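Quick question: what would this complex look like in 3D?
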Amino acid sequence: MSTSMLRNNIALRAALRTAAPQATKAFSTTAPTRALATLPDLPYDYGALEPAISGRIMELHHTKHHQTYVTNYNTVQSQITDALSAGDTAAAIALQPALTFHGGGNLNHTLFFENLAPKNQGGGQPPSGPLAKSIETHYGSFEKMKTQFVAALAGIQGSGWAWLVQDNETGALGIRQYANQDPVVGKFSPLLGIDAWEHAYYLQYENRKAEYFKEIWGVINWKVAEARMK
Amino acid sequence: MQFANLTLGWILSLAQSRLGVGPLVQSKLDAVTAPPPTDTAYTLPPLDYSYAALEPHFDEETMRIHHTKHHQTYITNLNAALQDTSFVGLHIDDLVARLSEVPAELKGKVRNQGGGHANHSFFWKNLTPNATALAEGSPLSQGIEHAFGSFEVFQQTFEKAATSVFGSGWAWLIVQENGELKVVTTLNQFSPLMGAGVVGKGVAGFPVIGLDVWEHAYYLKYRNVRPEYIKAYWHVVNWDFASDRYMEARSSIAHPEL
């Protein structure tokens, strides 16, 4: 378990993430550089989200799954950099699925762990500011939005995520399903994500994913979701 | 288009011709799974072995939940979707080969739930507690050597494919329409039996072995370490069943390339 003093300071961690150490090729002056990703700390202890999500799941999810996405994302970055440096366009493009998967996996899990919180850090507290208003406007009520969100989660075939998103042009809210580790990019920005991959709940809920989709609302960090609004 | 129809026709005829096990496996089993009744809904096929029989490679708890919960749920949902339609009573492999005939509003459900039922039904038969090595010189062994160079290269190819499924899916060794063996993967509950129109020309075919790489298939025991699960799979592959499947597929091809 991490004991980093940065754990509770989300803003500071986010700033450090964007200023991650640059790795440059030794001899080339024109080769593209890449920023090595590192596993961000959780802002809470692994067991802090119980009983909604077990400490065993949180630890595996963070130290194994998320870490693996980080590691592999760095590998893919390296491979794409090499391909681009060598002028091998085909090879760089062939790496796109791997980039989407591992890079998306890193992005998604970073956002996910940030939008969860223990009850004593506001987890489960419904939103009250602009986000609450926007939810009412688009869904009629917070409960109606939750119902749609759960339906989206339940409808995912295979592995994927459901996100509350904001349309970058209109500002409108939406609930969307994303397959595998496809990240929320392009037309929409992510506000709140829930991981529906089996590893997110299996050790505790087994095949009873409907239970997980119900219990997780008790640890959602709506303040973080609201801070993501534009 | 013509190739797609050819492949589909060939797969359909295979699906319809046989329901159960071939002579090799038949001779080793006391009881054989009876074909499902043709006028009622799908039911969960029993395993030919106990839930604990594949230990330590596949753990008992996973086998039990996988069979009684996951597979059962596909069947329950499929039956609900097909209620009062003319598709009730079709053998499941027949149903998934006929996806193009399913009405648009049902197609997604039948593909996901029907694919799940077909894939898992195949999977249980594809496993055995009494695994023996594939006999060298046997037709399947020769086919593998022809397609991959050696059994070892085939295994590496299969392991790499199974590892690289990005999300939920399956890894397969299939017989293609020209009689050649190939390692392919499908996402979610897609099956090579669904034909080229659904899974593409390169993936359509008749499964000989298959491995479920959805997380529910291995998470309780192997956690995130899918490669370990894949290695364990080799200890429980039913090569007798696989050989029967291979012979079945090859015998229905007019001019196999070999």
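Answer marked as accepted. The two ends of chain B are 25 Å apart (CA to CA).
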